[in-house]
Amino acid sequence: MDDEEWAINIFCLSQTEAVLAREGITDKAAANWIHHQVGLATRRAIAELGGTMPEDLLAIDSLKKLERQQTKKALPVPKKRRASKSDQSVDQAEEAE
């Protein structure tokens, strides 16, 4: 979630809470209806201002996914090295013992 989508969500939440408190609504069904109405009004305002609708905003990868990608980039993969003749002679000497 980017800053713009976060701001939209916080705005809807705060406006819904304000309406519920102002009108003294405690019924769950009524609260859901108010929340829906505030969401519709917010979407109309975004459209009128020429903004980007929340569903059209770019999705942001999760923090854990980004951390895994960074870890993969930071840790070099060790290359297999071919055994040299001196390594082979040491291995043979160890086997002989």
Write the layout of secondary structure elements.
Blueprint: H1 3-23, H2 28-48, H3 63-74, H4 85-96
Helix pairs in contact: 1-2
Strand/helix succession: HHHH
Q: Would you identify the regions where 5 or more consecutive residues have pLDDT less than 50?
A: none
Strand segment tally: 0
- What is the first-to-last residue Cα distance? 64 Å
Roughly how many Å is the radius of gyration?
Answer: 30 Å
Q: What proportion strand?
A: under 5%
Overall 3D form? elongated
Number of helices: 4
Mean pLDDT: 80
Largest sheet: none
Given the helix and strand composition, which structural class is it? mainly alpha
Helix content: 55-70%
Structure commentary:
α1 crosses α2. The chain is mostly helical and 97 residues long. The mean pLDDT is 80. The chain has helices at 3-23, 28-48, 63-74, 85-96. Helix content is 68%, strand content 0%. It has a domain at 1-59.
Compose a concise summary of this entry:
With about 100 residues, this protein is mostly helical.
Supply the key terms.
97 residues, mainly alpha, 0% strand, elongated
